[in-house]
Amino acid sequence: MFSVKTMDKGNFITFEGIDGSGKTSLIKAIAHELVAQGLDVLTTQEPGGTQLGMRLREVFLRVQSEEEISPLAEALLFAADRAQHVECLIKPALKAGKIIISDRFTDSTLAYQGAGRNLPLKLLEQLINIASGGLTPDLTILLDLPVQTAILRKQNQGIQVNRMDTEKAEFYERVRKAYLELAARNPERFRIVSADKPFDEVKKETLNFIWDFLGSQKGYYSISKNKPEISL
C-alpha cells in the first residue's frame, strides 16, 4: 500500500493558526500516524525548537516581567529563535531526509507581529529572509477557528496562562484574517482545515492533505491510489 523510496532531501510541513486552534494535539497525532507508516518524522516548534529557543520562549511567554516587550523586540526575539532553529535543527534534518513538522514558522511572524502588532510588513519580510535564509515550507496546514471558540477552548483547558492569553479578541481577529489572506495568496502551499469540528474529523482531513502532498513528490514517495488506512 505504501512504500518509501530513496530520498535526496526531506520535506518541511508547518502548522499555523491562532492560539487555541489545536495545533499541538493535532501535530502529535499526525506524527504518530506518519511514523506508523515507516516515515522518519521530526516534530518541532517556534519558539522553542532548540535549547536557545526554549530560553527565548520562556522569556516571551512570561506574563509578569520587569518591563513590557515592545513589538519590535518581540519580532527580533522570534528572528533570533528562527535563525538558530533553521541552522541547528531544520537544515540538518532536511539534509538527512526527514519529514519535519513544525508548530509555527514564518507565517506566524506575518500574522502576529504584522497584523497583530501592526509592524511594517517590509521590515518583517526582511527579518524573515535573514533568519530563515529563504527557507519556505513545502506544505502549510492552516487550522482555522473562530476567535471566540478559540478563547473558550483555552479557558476550558485549565492550563497556566501565558502572555499571549492576555491579548484581546480584536488582536486575534486581525491575526486570523491575516492567516486567511496568506492562504489565499499562496494556494499552492496552504491547505485550510476547519478546526471547529470534532478532533477525529480534523485529523482525518489533515492526514488526507498530507498523503496527497507526499504522493505528489515524484521519486520521493510511492503511494497507491488508496491512501494508507487512517485509524481514528
Tell me, rounded to a whole number, the average pLDDT.
87
CATH architecture: 3-Layer(aba) Sandwich
- Count structural domains: 1
The biggest beta sheet is recorded as:
5 strands, parallel
If helices are DSSP runs of H or I spanning 4 or more residues, what is the number of helices? 8
Radius of gyration: 18 Å
How widely separated are the two ends? 19 Å
* Molecular shape: globular
Low-confidence stretches: 1-7, 219-226
CATH topology: the name is: Rossmann fold
Structural write-up:
The structure is a single chain. By secondary structure, this protein is α/β, with parallel strands linked by helices. It has a single domain (2-223), classed as P-loop containing nucleotide triphosphate hydrolases (Rossmann fold), CATH 3.40.50. Helix content is 51%, strand content 14%. It is built from eight helices and seven strands. It has helices at residues 23-36, 51-61, 71-95, 106-116, 121-132, 147-157, 169-185, 199-215; strands spanning 2-4, 11-16, 41-45, 99-103, 139-144, 190-194, 221-223. Strands 3-4-2-5-6 form a five-stranded parallel beta sheet, with helices on both faces. Strands 1-7 form a two-stranded antiparallel ribbon. Helix 1 packs across helix 8 (199-215), helix 3 runs parallel beside helix 5 (121-132) and helix 4 (106-116) runs antiparallel to helix 5 (121-132). The chain is globular and about 50 Å long. The two termini are 19 Å apart. Residues 1-7 and 219-226 have low confidence and may be disordered.
